[in-house]
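Now for today's protein:

——
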Amino acid sequence: MGETQIGYLGLGSNVGGRRENLQAAVDLLPARGVSVLASSSTYDTDPVGEVLDQPSFLNACIQVSTALDPEDLLDACKAIEAELGRDLEGGIRHGPRPIDVDLLLLGDLVYESERLTLPHIETTSRRFVLIPLLELDFELRAPDGAPLSEALVALGFDEGVRREGAALAVPPQ
């Protein structure tokens, strides 16, 4: 545990009650040392990556505050995924899943280990990440100072991301 930092997590679900799965992940974070400060709206998004033949995802981003170091924060995210029914061992990479909790940014930290890269390697290449992230903070920048809004403009409009609903409920502090 170190100094408290502001971070951003990306949430996704395309199995079961998608919104309920996202909300359950938000609700489980405080018990693992992660305060949820704000949530974006939710977005219905077309699958991208290696498995395109699957249901659409519901995605959101949340702003968090934590004193956990990057590896401990990743452990908290993975524990919540497992608790909510994600198969972390036998599941198909990029396949259908009840929950995905991705660590996108943690302060201005640039970090790389065998398990984790910060900022998340796909933060600037996925509209379903950038749109809700910029909804939370339009001035947000990558650790190198590059505005994330410029990354979104550079992507164009070929990936289906549709606003679906209101922000997730943020647990009281």
Notes: Residues 70-83 form the longest helix (14 residues). The helical segments are 18-28, 70-83, 127-136, 148-155.
